[in-house]
Amino acid sequence: MIDEIRELLEVPDPALAERVASSERPWHGRIYDVETDDVICPDGSHGYREIARHHGGAGVAAVKDGKICLVRQWRVSAGRMTLEIPAGRLDEGETPDVCAARELTEETGYVADRVELVAHSMGAIGFTDECTHVYRAIGLRKSEAHPDEGEFVGIVWLPVDDVVEAIHTGLIRDSKTIVAAFDAALRAAD
Amino acid sequence: MIDEIRELLEVPDPALAERVASSERPWHGRIYDVETDDVICPDGSHGYREIARHHGGAGVAAVKDGKICLVRQWRVSAGRMTLEIPAGRLDEGETPDVCAARELTEETGYVADRVELVAHSMGAIGFTDECTHVYRAIGLRKSEAHPDEGEFVGIVWLPVDDVVEAIHTGLIRDSKTIVAAFDAALRAAD
User: Fold this and answer.
1) Which of B130, B166, B109 lies closest to B58 in space, CA to CA?
2) Which of A54, B74, B111, B166 can pair with B171 through a Cys bridge, CB separation 3.0 to 4.6 Å?
3) Does residue B138 belong to the interface with chain A, where contact is any CB pair within 8 Å?
């Protein structure tokens, strides 16, 4: 079945695929660029697409004794406090798994023997190529936290089941955290 | 525990909260606006934040006989075919649950008795307020599909277990779909 799914994804369907006729970057930011595309649809008509081009990031689920490690921080995008798995943007040339392991140690003071892929999660595929690579930590050991300068965070360990409930009630909203917590609950249910 | 989580989220922590000192909108799009903020951090230093302001959307998990309904389409952001739960942007003044039910019928031809919240999923909280409200359909009935003009999609029903495997191997990458599929797998495991 995986091979069939792979084919559904990897073989462009001429009845569905769009071709970019021309592309512009009307705004360049420090975090993302704005791209606007004129595309040619399968029926030959033209369409307009707006993409935020972003380098992506990585996050990591650290689970111990049925509890998941979440970082409490302020998010300007949401205008409120959030609870999120440890995560950050990819450094130049950094692979996602290395980034995930680095963020885990920097933000929480834990070290993992290794990390395993949960999902390459594209957060808002309709308008951005942003991808957060979500991993789970295997073999957690305590070390020492050293957050980035200018990063203000607080660590909490919460029961996975309560986090899942808080997601269903709409309290916890961060997509990488939802992906990580659902995955942790699935593994606990197995 | 939910009340404790609520307090962690709803009470701004003065040691973490940032205050927006000034805000600009240097680019206006049809799908999102660029906002740049000068913020004051908890220690009094200034920070720069870049937000893509977006109206959000809604998606719906339709599951029947262990299979989940996915829409095969082309995404310019990813430059490839994707498999996603039925979803779309919120119409002006439309509530997310109504949007989810509408997209289900338009894209797949199925009608739901009602939809239930899975998660308010903020896809890339670090740089956008975009939120995809993910629901699951209860009481599925066959009706007739009528996709938007200029929308080219194909419907497939895939076993939830295979979709979860395709997520872990990185084949399926759309975050709302990951959230919906993990939730469906969790309910099947219960």
Assistant:
1) B130
2) B166
3) no
